[in-house]
Amino acid sequence: MFTRRQMIATTLTSLATPALVGPALAAPSEWDAWDSQVTPANFDLGSTNPWGLHPRYLPQQVRANEGLKPGDVHVDAVARYLYHIQDDGTAMRYGVAIGRDGLYEPGVYTIRRKAKWPGWTPTPAMIKREPEKYARWEEGMPPGPENALGSRALYLYVGNRDTYLRIHGTPAPRSIGTRASSGCVRMVMPHINTLYDQVDTGVTAYLYPTDGGAL
């Protein structure tokens, strides 16, 4: 999966990626209804697939490389996998989508915040780059199943600086396995709902280069 050499920290440049501070917060009373809306009936993490994903992108438990710290998250940008390292030497592996060419930012981050059903506001850079797509949301997109961040978001920081990169759910599950986002890591909403409950704030997230090299 990964070598220990790939765990070396890096300094990051400023990012032009989605701001995940939305115009309004969803009321907890709405969360369960939205979770039910985006989760297929009789959902099974490893086999349910109404989205037509390639089977390799369905979650599964795999053997982790030695030396990786339990609790941490690793994103393989080549294979489009996210690994969550477990205490027993295994990892839960999920399929993801990553940033489009020039927008994906490999590096070493800390997950400092988690949010259920967050709102979302595109950054000025996103609006300038694609006004036809993002300008209408310059005041923010409210939370809900159609929100760009989906059902859950893990907020990535470098030190105390919010990078505006996130690992988040997506209302476009067919993008999993591709380079589709403005820099963030996308997951199927029922998949990140499961991951969200297992990830603690303070853990490290490693986003590896698209050429398969070390950080």
From TrEMBL:
SUPFAM superfamilies, sorted: L,D-transpeptidase catalytic domain-like
Active site: residue positions: H168 (proton donor/acceptor), C184 (nucleophile)
Top-rank taxon: Bacteria
Signal peptide interval: 1-26
Gene Ontology cellular-component annotations: extracellular region
Domain L,D-TPase catalytic span(s) in chain numbering: 71-208
UniProt xrefs under InterPro entries: LD-transpeptidase, LD_TPept_cat_dom, Transpep_catalytic_dom
Pathways per UniProt: Cell wall biogenesis; peptidoglycan biosynthesis
GO BP terms in the entry: cell wall organization; peptidoglycan-protein cross-linking; regulation of cell shape
Similarity comment: family membership: Belongs to the YkuD family.
Identification of the protein by name: L,D-transpeptidase
Species annotation: Marivita cryptomonadis
